[in-house]
């Protein structure tokens, strides 16, 4: 508890920067786990300032790791089927039957194809941007876009 109290300001600072609900808890758990795994025989030789700096840098590196993890998660989020339906409704297409056709078409796509469809046709990302978001090559996105177009054409015939 003394360590958590001592590094409270550092943990609060990085949790605010992480900007998600359980960031402070995650950093506190990290600190407790770090203390549990430290080799105390080596730490006895360190001065108090060196020990504090080690803990501070460890918290900072955990902040960086969590930040990258959250960025990856956020960049790979895709609209769910419900969000796609809401988006289509907001655009107020010509007729209700057209909405049903689009929804039926989306239901025949695989998860990855829905992600590509969402990125390219709804958000307007380029093939390169979509490839970075999904984590595949630009060429794979191009091939998938062609398959999606063929599937939509096939479903609408």
- What is the N-to-C order of secondary-structure elements (H for helix, E for strand)? HHHHHHHHHH
The N- and C-terminal alpha carbons lie at a distance of 67 Å
The overall strand count is 0
Q: Summarize the amount of helix as a percent range.
A: over 70%
Shape: elongated
Roughly what is the average pLDDT, rounded to an integer?
Answer: 77
Q: Compute the number of helices.
A: 10
Structural class: mainly alpha
Radius of gyration: 24 Å
Q: What is the percentage of strand-forming residues?
A: under 5%
How does this structure look, described?
The protein contains 10 helices and no strands. The chain has 157 residues and is mainly α. It has helices spanning 2-6, 8-18, 23-37, 40-43, 48-75, 81-91, 96-107, 111-122, 127-134, 138-156.
Write the layout of secondary structure elements.
Elements: H1 2-6, H2 8-18, H3 23-37, H4 40-43, H5 48-75, H6 81-91, H7 96-107, H8 111-122, H9 127-134, H10 138-156
Helix pairs in contact: 2-3, 2-5, 3-5, 6-7, 7-10, 8-10, 9-10
Summary keywords:
80% helix, mainly alpha, 157 residues
Summarize this structure briefly.
The chain is built from ten helices and no strands.
């Amino acid at each position: 508890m003394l360590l958590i109290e001592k590094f409270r300001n550092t943990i609060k600072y990085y949790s605010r920067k992480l900007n998600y609900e359980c960031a402070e808890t995650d950093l506190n758990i990290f600190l407790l786990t770090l203390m549990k795994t430290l080799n105390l025989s080596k730490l006895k030789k360190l001065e108090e300032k060196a020990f504090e700096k080690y803990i501070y840098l460890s918290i900072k590196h955990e902040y960086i790791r969590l930040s990258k993890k959250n960025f990856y998660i956020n960049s790979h989020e895709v609209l769910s089927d419900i969000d796609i339906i809401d988006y289509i409704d907001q655009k107020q297409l010509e007729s209700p039957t057209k909405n049903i056709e689009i929804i039926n078409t989306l239901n025949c796509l695989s998860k990855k194809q829905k992600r590509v469809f969402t990125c390219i046709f709804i958000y307007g990302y380029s093939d390169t941007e979509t490839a970075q978001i999904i984590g595949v090559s630009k060429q794979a996105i191009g091939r998938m876009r062609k398959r999606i177009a063929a599937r939509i054409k096939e479903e609408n015939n």
